[in-house]
Design a protein that fits this description.
This protein is α+β, with helices and mostly antiparallel strands and 324 residues long. The chain is built from 7 helices and 13 strands. The protein has a 5-stranded antiparallel sheet with strand order 4-5-3-7-6.
Length: 324
């Protein structure tokens, strides 16, 4: 993909990345529900009533019409096992229709304002008051991530100062990166082809990722639970890394022919994934070489004793009688 095209991509625009996959823009907010006063609840929270109260609030205060399927609320834990300060429910708010946004900065600014206005509101359900905590997912906040790596590398030694170049994606549906009609496991070739759209790749790693904390919309049952992968991509150029991460933030994956949208988690690699992998491989090779050398040293005296015992120099000459 051309660098200019990525730079000019509007935050509300979709992007086809190959293999029938499309990056779909959306606004996503994490929701956590607490009792307004720490107390022991006797009745479980009514998820449907909580959803209706939030939808009505968005409609009345922000003129935002939200389909019920775009708001997810789930009860947390058994009430008997819950501590007084623990939340009672958590969920996710997604807004897919972003046609009301015009400028590039409108999306992040409008999202942040919405999160601020919703954070701390009180909801009254059947005489019980609840407080809502709202936050922007870390993997959706590109500006915060960029600030974090700038601060991280600012304290590095000037002679060894580097720039980030590696992206980490988790909770990615494995079969969406597999070779069709060949396997359900992710393919290195397919994955490399897809992410080459963002720039030239230096290193690539694909592995299974069965993290139970994955955040994927499975309402229609289109995916089998557990079939997720982790993708680590190292680009050769910083600007390709920067553009790719900016485009991946604030979007979900959608497969052609499927109604499901997968909310992957994206971040930048500050742990040196590929550098540590090379070091571990080198350490393993060194360990094998050391073990082999130790084995040879321990076996040398034994072989020497064996050889000296049967050395031709120490063999007694055999006598033969010769008759004439």
């Amino acid at each position: 993909m051309e660098e200019q095209e990525l730079n000019q991509l509007h935050p509300t625009a979709t992007l086809e990345i190959g293999n029938g996959l499309t990056l779909v823009p959306r606004i996503k907010l994490n929701l956590t529900v607490y009792p307004s006063t720490p107390s022991t609840l006797t009745n479980p929270i009514d998820e449907w009533k909580m959803k209706r109260a939030l939808i009505d609030f968005l409609q009345s205060s922000h003129s935002l019409s939200l389909p019920e399927e775009d708001l997810e609320i789930k009860r947390l834990k058994d009430l008997k096992k819950r501590k007084r300060e623990d939340p009672v429910a958590a969920g996710t708010l997604r807004i897919w229709d972003l046609s009301f946004l015009q400028n590039d900065n409108d999306l992040s600014q409008w999202r942040n304002r919405l999160a601020e206005k919703m954070n701390g509101i009180e909801l009254n359900l059947q005489g019980v008051r609840f407080t809502l905590a709202v936050s922007v997912p870390a993997s959706d906040d590109f500006d915060a991530m960029k600030k974090s790596w700038e601060e991280f590398f600012a304290f590095q030694n000037r002679s060894s100062r580097r720039e980030p170049d590696t992206i980490v994606l988790r909770a990615v549906p494995s079969r969406w990166f597999a070779e069709p009609r060949v396997s359900s496991k992710p393919s290195m070739l397919v994955t490399h082809t897809i992410f080459s759209k963002f720039g030239k790749i230096r290193n690539l790693n694909v592995a299974e990722d069965d993290d139970s904390g994955k955040d994927v919309n499975e309402d229609n049952g289109d995916l089998v639970s557990g079939l997720y992968c982790k993708i680590v991509v190292q680009f050769e150029k910083y600007r390709d890394f920067n553009d790719a991460l900016r485009v991946l933030c604030g979007r979900s994956l959608q497969k052609q022919g499927s109604r499901l949208k997968a909310d992957y988690e994206v971040s930048w690699d500050k742990d040196g994934f590929f550098r540590n992998s090379r070091n571990q491989t080198q350490e393993k090779n060194n360990m094998v070489s050391t073990m082999a050398a130790d084995y040879n040293r321990s076996e040398a005296p034994r072989r020497q004793a064996y050889n000296s015992r049967y050395s031709p120099d120490k063999v007694r000459p055999r006598r033969f009688k010769v008759r004439f």
